[in-house]
Amino acid sequence: MTRQPHSPIVSTEDVHGTAVYDVAGKKMGRVDHLMIDKASGRVTAAVINVAGFLGIGHSHREVPWTALAYRTALHGYQLSSEHAPID
């Protein structure tokens, strides 16, 4: 475990499995993995594991890394409104 709560730097180990919430604060899934640009080394996107209906099955949704903001009160990432899921 590499968690350091007061550090602005986070390990990918700690991001994996972190909850992701929609704009309304409803849990929509968890971070499955990150997409990293090979040349720059920058994180470009997060792939969210979204649970299926009644918890059966799942799907993956890729969102730009910049569309997520860590919310301490939620202990997870919250998706910005322009990237809200389409029903």
Q: What helical percentage do the residues reach?
A: under 10%
Distance between the termini: 36 Å
Which consecutive residue ranges, at least 5 long each, have pLDDT under 50?
A: none
Tell me the number of structural domains.
1
Q: Any overview of this molecule?
A:
This protein has 87 residues and is mostly beta strands. The protein has one domain (12-81): SH3 type barrels. The chain is 5% helix and 43% strand. The protein is built from one helix and six strands. The protein has one helix at 12-15, and strands at 19-21, 27-36, 43-51, 58-64, 68-71, 76-79. A six-stranded mixed β-sheet has the order 4-3-2-1-6-5, with no helix packed on it. The chain is globular and about 35 Å long. The mean pLDDT is 85.
Q: What secondary-structure arrangement, pairings included, does this model have?
A:
Elements: H1 12-15, E1 19-21, E2 27-36, E3 43-51, E4 58-64, E5 68-71, E6 76-79
Parallel strand pairs: 1-6
Antiparallel strand pairs: 1-2, 2-3, 3-4, 5-6
